[in-house]
Structures are given as C-alpha cells and as structure tokens.
Amino acid sequence: MLDFTGKVVLITGGGAGIGRESAILFAQHGAKVVINSVGPTSGQETVNLIRQKGGEAIFIRGDVANNAFCKQLVEKTVEAYGRLDILVNSAGIVRPGNVCEVSEETIDEVLAVNVKGVFFTSKYAIEEMTKTGGGNIVHIASAACMYGVKNRSVYTASKGAIVALTKAMAVDHAHQHIRVNAICPGATITPSLEERFQTSADPDALRAQFVANHPIGRLAEPIEIAYSVVFVASDESAFTTGAAFMIDGGVSL
Ligand SMILES: NC(=O)c1ccc[n+]([C@@H]2O[C@H](COP(=O)([O-])OP(=O)(O)OC[C@H]3O[C@@H](n4cnc5c(N)ncnc54)[C@H](O)[C@@H]3O)[C@@H](O)[C@H]2O)c1
To answer: Is 40's C-beta closer than 6 angstroms to any atom of ligand 1?
Structure first.
C-alpha cells in the first residue's frame, strides 16, 4: 500500500536510531532520501545501508541548531532531487538536570537543537513545499512530554514545545496542503539510549527500571517507531494533521 515513488524525503538526525530506520523504510517504499546528521560518518552509513538495498539517498552533514545550515540543507536537497515532499525532524539531544541544576548554557544548547532546529528546517522546507503544491512534516517529540521524567527538565520542556508547535503549524499551513504531525516514542533502543545505560552506575538495573515503566514489558525497537513515522507521512493518513501519536508501550499511561 505505502508508495513514496517520486517523493523526496529529508530526515534530520538520520545517522542513527529512529531517523536511520525511518530513512531506510522510506527508501524501501520508493522515496529518494536526504540524510542529515551532525557527526562525520553515521549519516553516510545510513546512505550505504539504503544503497545496498537498491535505494537512493545522499548525506548532508551539519548542525540543525544553525539557521544558515538549515537553509543550505533544504537548498542542497532541492539541488540534488528537484523538490522536497516530506521533512522528518528527528535530530535531538538529551541533557540531564532539574531546573535548579541545569545551566543556562545547557538550556540554550538543548533548545537550539530540539526546538529552534525544528523551526529552522520547517521554515525552509515549507517554502519549498508550497512551490510544489504541498507536503508533509513529522516531528519526533517524546512520550516524555506527557509525564514527568526525573532529572530531564529541559529535554521534557523541549518535547512539550514540539507537540504544541505541531498543532500551531498544522493550523497555519493546512491551507497550503501541508500536514504536520508528531510521533511521541517511549524508550527506544538507539545509540543514545544505550550510551545512557552504559554510562550509568548500574546499566542492568537502569535498563530493568526503564522496562518496568513500560506496561508492554519491553523497550521499543527503532523500526517500530519508524513504521509510525512513515505511515503518518503517507497518503493513507491524508486526513491526519496536528496529531501527536503516543508510540510508547503505554509508558505515558
Ligand atoms: N531513543 C529514545 O528512547 C527516544 C525516545 C523518545 C524520543 N526520542 C527522540 O527521537 C529522536 C531520535 O533519537 P534516537 O534516539 O533515535 O537517535 P540518537 O540520539 O541515537 O541519534 C540522534 C541522531 O541525531 C543526530 N543529531 C544530534 N544532534 C544533531 C544536530 N544538532 N544536528 C543534526 N543532527 C543531529 C545525531 O548525529 C544522530 O544521527 C530524538 O529527537 C529523540 O529526542 C528518542
């Protein structure tokens, strides 16, 4: 059913985890995919995985916290593939600290990537999408925005902002045939979550605590989140906009 033939998809944070699996899935369903990530190699690895399966993709390295880079990212996407149909904002960072502990620098760092980066990429993407009659934007928020995650104040706030922004953008751009939705994952086994476990005092205990918090009794695989991303961006969900989907194994319940 899902068919993205002729569509061009731009995915920020596509070098790992949810962004990478979404990129692979879009490509398997016919899309040309532009992968962005901040690191030097991981985005190219995603491209290689796509090409090995016969798909079409390129990598553009850069930091979505940089407004000028976001403009270039969209421009280079259009240079390479002629248009932009779907934007997935998956780049995101997590920093610890409650409001009494977290420094102003850390607040600025997290909001620059998780919120301003989404503003910037969306702004330039929308300008392109309107030239071709419409498009689709999917933000990766987090189930964390629905409940209190201990010691993650600025991350939780950033993801709450993204859900609110999803609704504002959906209202603002519906008349331009641009749908905007958010996917809110529960804990998903990606490089950043693995790093969090491995750098804790007791990785097994922390992993068990995460699992216990999810009524479904396990953590998500990135592909399980990617299926939701691809579905909400597809024509099959053409009546869906401004929604925030909890794909979270029940953790927010
Ligand atoms: N893994 C989870 O448990 C989980 C749960 C809920 C929400 N999320 C969200 O899902 C999204 C993806 O996270 P993940 O865990 O799948 O991946 P990850 O954290 O393992 O990898 C993130 C990717 O984003 C890229 N990135 C980071 N900062 C960037 C920047 N400034 N500019 C461009 N790229 C940048 C990295 O290079 C990497 O490719 C994030 O927004 C995250 O907050 C993750």
So the answer is: no
Q: How does residue 42 score in pLDDT terms, banded at 50, 70 and 90?
A: very high
Catalogue the active-site residues. 155
pTM, to two decimals: 0.98
**1 has a pLDDT exceeding 80:** no
Question: Would you say the CB of residue 64 lies under 6 angstroms from ligand 1?
Answer: yes
Please check whether residue 12 is in contact with residue 90, taking contact to mean a CB–CB distance below 8 angstroms: yes
Domains and CATH numbers, the chain: 8-185+221-246 (3.40.50.720), 189-219 (no CATH)
Tokens representing 181?
């939705």
Burial class (CB in 10 A: 0-12, 13-18, 19+), 63: middle
